[in-house]
Specification:
The protein has helices spanning 61-68, 83-86, 89-96, 107-114, 180-191, 210-213, 217-223, and strands at residues 15-25, 37-47, 51-55, 72-77, 100-102, 121-122, 128-131, 134-140, 149-153, 158-162, 165-166, 169-170, 199-202, 208-209. By secondary structure, it is an alpha/beta fold. The protein has a single domain, classed as Metallo-beta-lactamase, Chain A (4-Layer Sandwich). The chain is globular and about 50 Å long.
Length: 225
Amino acid sequence: MGTGRRKAEPVPQVHIERIITSGSIGVGRPGLPVDGIQLENNVWLIGDSERVLVIDAAHDAQAIAQAVGERETLGILLTHGHEDHVNAALEAAQLLDTHVYLHPEDLFIWSETHGDALPDFELTHGATFQVGDIELSTRHTPGHTPGSVCFVAPALNTVFSGDTLFQGGPGATRWDYSSFPQIITSIQESLFTLPAATVVQPGHGDHTVIEREQPALESWLARGQ
């Protein structure tokens, strides 16, 4: 009789999926068009065939739930509190039977969209999340908003940057609660310290790479916010 060992089951492979959602924000707010401003957002799924983490929940909870499918959702992680990143968070959490995480310094912005309803848990600098054999760590990167964060996945050579860093420069700092010097410090200390080949997956638009953005720092400083 054979004495061969039973072949080990393959480990599900963690990968990144992008969903592009669109919708209107600021509907009915003074100074904005009656029907709001139309935006496209990136929603990121990090997971395997069994479990997934969602980064940002923008505009379309049904589309997010459809992309997740039958997988277990381990959490909805929000990069910051702006409407276009959180407006589908509560509905998506209900559809996916999961929890919402947001840095507490952005609760005042979150409340503009969700009123008295609160996220389930507070994000803190250094908080980690596990999906499969991949760990995401939270980095507090204020500037765009006081509670902006990025999520670093070293094993995937990727950082999910929200609206902190884009292809071509930092996120907007036009609000009273924003700070251009602060976002520059956040990028220098929390993102430009990552390996040069780290892929940057932002909240809008296409990806970039850390080494592609580093040489432009002086030009960002020259143009200011």
